[in-house]
Amino acid sequence: MDGVVVARTLHILAVVIWIGGVSMATTVVIAAIRRGDLGSDRLKAFQTIERRFVWQARAAVILVGLTGLYMTAELDLWDRFRMAEFWWMHAMVCLWLLFVFILFVAEPFILHRRFHRWATTAPDVAFAWLHRVHWILLALALITVFGAAAGSHGWLLF
Ligand code: HEM
């Protein structure tokens, strides 16, 4: 079995789990929490769901990074980072770095405590902000997936 085929399959599988979770959180979970559909304690509802998903997201992000780097090295694709038509390669790496920062640095060391305090004192504003940030991350992720799926099969868009 070709190692690149295995890496590509795992890459896509992990992207599906990770970005699918972001989509579900944004369009369903946080929207329901904001409306109070999951109980009046919105912070508890959010943390119950987030606590379980965050580890899936962390594992998926690691797998996406390792398989992505493996494919780049095996196929010797480094030159693409000097060409604008491969903007989706830059987008994949930038999005990945952004999520590594959020999941491994910002969330455990900064956001966890700050958001807890904010959501306790001003829940409406805190959850509106959280929702907006998720929409932005989801939009960036969807553009990246679209560009990468199209670009890696020859449709360069620009
Ligand atoms: C360190 C980060 C990443 C690296 C180095 C990387 C690298 C790669 C490489 C080398 C390919 C194969 C390109 C080709 O065959 O021409 C690929 C495909 C792909 N990547 Fe990434 N990637 C990374 C992160 C991401 C992220 C964050 C996403 C999505 C949000 C993503 C989504 C995809 C998709 C959808 C494909 C197309 C698979 C296909 O249709 O065959 N990647 N990636």
Query: How much of the sequence is in beta strands?
Result: under 5%
Q: Give the structural class.
A: mainly alpha
Poorly predicted runs are none
- The overall pLDDT average reads 96
Q: How many DSSP E strands?
A: 0
Count of individual helical segments: 4
Q: What count of domains describes the coordinates? A: 1
- How far do the termini sit from each other? 34 Å
* Coarse shape: elongated
* String of helices and strands: HHHH
Radius of gyration: 18 Å
Describe the structure.
- This protein is mainly alpha-helical.
- The chain has one domain.
- The chain contains four helices and no strands.
- It has helices spanning 3-35, 42-74, 87-121, 123-151.
- The radius of gyration is 18 Å and the shape is elongated.
- The mean pLDDT is 96.
- Bound molecules: protoporphyrin IX containing FE.
- Protoporphyrin IX containing FE binds next to helix 1, helix 2, helix 3 and helix 4.
- The site of protoporphyrin IX containing FE (HEM) has 22 residues, from helix 1, helix 2, helix 3 and helix 4.
